[in-house]
Amino acid sequence: MKHLIQAAVAASVVTSAAQADVKEWTLDLGHAYIGWEIDHMNLSPTVGQFRDFDGTFLIDEDAPENSKITFTVQAASVDTNHVGRDTHLRKPEYLAAEEHPEITFTSTEVQMLTPTSGKLHGDVEMRGVTAPLTLDFTMVQDKHYPDFIPNYDELRVIGFEAKGEVFRLDHGMDFIAFLGSPTGLSIDLDLNFDLVDCSGAPDTNIPCNWGRVEGFVGPNE
Fold this sequence. Notes:
By secondary structure, the protein is mainly β.
């Protein structure tokens, strides 16, 4: 029994040490973008974005494979700069936003290919159907905000770019209006976002609070 207890304590210490290496980063909602484009009759593609989303980023810098990342997107926030098209995209033929209001991505593996780039493997649930998705990501910058910018508090910030491809048939989105329909089958994703180390940040800090705290006012509001 004594050896079992010692082993359990040792395992607990190891687990705690491993968890200590994982830090939660905050998505700067003022500097984040989830965009997409899809074929339009082999002409210029239809492009759009989602306006309402958030994510959790538990990052282990020493062992990135231990990192866990999720995104949650509000399907009804789709925006293609065309009211009629956006209304149609929210309907059951496409996003079914009323029945399935959230699109979620949950990482299953972080695969580093270079010190600053890799592949983020995960699962996307859309319209109630889950399918795998791989995002190719690049870290574009790792720095601290300069001291002359007020209410940014010289916090550490890391910028990322990521790209991927979703096949709408994988999520049961099989609506085709007519032969040669303007809606393609492959959706190209384009993500840009900043992650901020908000540990110890004051409640006046802009990237850690903007869009998260009701009534929070940034410098240009």
